[in-house]
Every structure is written in C-alpha cells, then in structure tokens.
Amino acid sequence: MRLSQQARKRTPVHELSLCNGLLRQVEQVADAHHAVEVTGIVLAVGPLSGAEPSLLSRAFHLARIGTIAENAELEIEHAPAIVRCDTCGVETEAAANALSCGRCGTWKVTLKAGNELMLKRVDLVPAEQPIVAAAS
Ligand SMILES: [Zn+2]
Which CATH code is given to the segment(s) 2-126? Predict the structure, then answer.
C-alpha cells in the first residue's frame, strides 16, 4: 500500500527512459516491416524489472507522442519471476520478494526470468503501397 502510494507520487523518469528505449525498438520493428503505423504494443514486465506498470503506461502516453506508435495502445503483461534451483535443478516460479526454490525451498537459486522488460508483440499497419524513396 505504502509502496504504491510512493510510486504514484514519483516522477516516472525511469519509466520514461524505458519507454523511449522501447519505442526505438518498436520503430525498428515497424521499419523492418515497412509499416506506416503501430496500433498496439504488448509488453511483458517482470516483477524485478524495477518498472512500475502503472507508471510505465503513464510514461508511455508521453513517450509515444511524435513516434510511429503515437496512437498505439500499450498492453502490459505481468511476467513471472522464474528461478532455477542450484540444488535440485528445477525451474519454478517464485515470488519477487522471496526468491527460493518452489520444490525444495532452498535460497540457492539463479534468477532465470523476472527482471526483464520485453517487447512481446507489436501490431503494425502495413503500407498499402510500398513507399519508394526517391533516388536522385
Ligand atoms: Zn530446489
């Protein structure tokens, strides 16, 4: 409760820079597919990514202005934290604040996923006619 209140007051500088990086990736994807517009972006956010999803979506609304994703909707999926146990070798889902093996309970685990911010999907509007740059 306290944490989310603090998060709400915090200026989303961190999230803004994350969004800018993300939009660069999106623009690359759009470029590669000769898209004219991006209508949707799906992002997987791990619990250890350091990004607050609510701030991220607010920051996205600012960051998208003037980009190919100006009208894109951002969908945030919550990715789980996955740890691999150093003792029994299994990979299990773990709580972000208690990274221990889901099978044997040891704390000797390696984080496999959960600290990422991953572009999962980009919805593109393809150019109806290929845009050919005028060559001089
Ligand atoms: Zn284990």
Answer: 3.30.2320.80
Mean pLDDT of successive 10-residue segments in the chain (136 residues)? Answer: 52 86 96 94 93 92 96 95 97 93 96 93 84 58
State in Å: Cα 89 to ligand 1 middle: 6
Q: How far is the CA of 83 from the centre of ligand 1 (A)?
A: 9
| pTM, full prediction | 0.76
Neighbours of ion ligand 1 (CB under 5 A): 85, 87-88, 101, 103-104
Q: What are the E-state strand segments in the chain?
A: 35-45, 73-78, 81-85, 91-94, 109-113, 117-126
Whole-number Å distance, alpha carbon 47 to ligand 1 midpoint, is 21
How confident is the model at residue 50, as a pLDDT?
Answer: 87
**CA distance linking residue 45 with residue 125, whole number of Å:** 25
